[in-house]
Amino acid sequence: MSGRDDFFSKEASLINRSKRELADGRDKDPIYKLRLLCFSRGATGILGLARTFRNMDDDGSKALNYEEFHKGIKDTGLESTDDEIRDMFTKFDEDNDGSINMTEFLLKLRPPMPQSRLDIIDKAFKKIDRTGDGVITVEDLRTVYSVKDHPKYLSGEMTENEILTQFLNNFEGGRGNLDGKVTKEEFQNYYATISASIDNDAYFDLVMRRAYKL
């Protein structure tokens, strides 16, 4: 997929920019700081945190208490003091009931995107999700992503399945469960970070269309 190289170079500059901003010593809004911490981990930063929280949601309530939130931030390896984590939690816990709704939390954490970008991300997801079940699998990917030119496929180092699974793992976050299934939310989380690294709407649109032949 051409277009991936564009993403990687943009991602690298976003990582560097975020690290510089985190180190500048200025006071920051807790939510903004958490977003920067995620950005400093690249496109899978927000994904990794989302996955960690989802895995901790033992009772399926989609709500996190302070202990779970604190553990999630620490487990994901985002450098924050206890006071900062408490500030973040308070900011996300709008109704002061001692818990955070995970979906709302992610919507706030993800950088805002214009509707045009959400639409093109949605279009790419629908194109790959051949079965229409809301989850992208290796089987879905096989029909839209050719490995024939992949250097490791040509050299015999990796099979088609291995390459496709590795491609899907990109969307799951390095610390995810890497189950080879990508939900729409994970796909959006990944591209929300990529989107933050591309200022121009038309260019974001172009890169997405090139990558997924839309």
UniProtKB/TrEMBL annotation:
MF annotations from Gene Ontology: calcium ion binding
Record flagged with keyword Metal-binding: yes
Domain spans labelled EF-hand: 44-79, 80-115, 116-151
SMART domains per UniProt: EFh
Pfam (any one): EF-hand_5
Alphabetical UniProt keywords: Calcium, Metal-binding, Repeat
The protein, known as: Calcyphosin-like protein
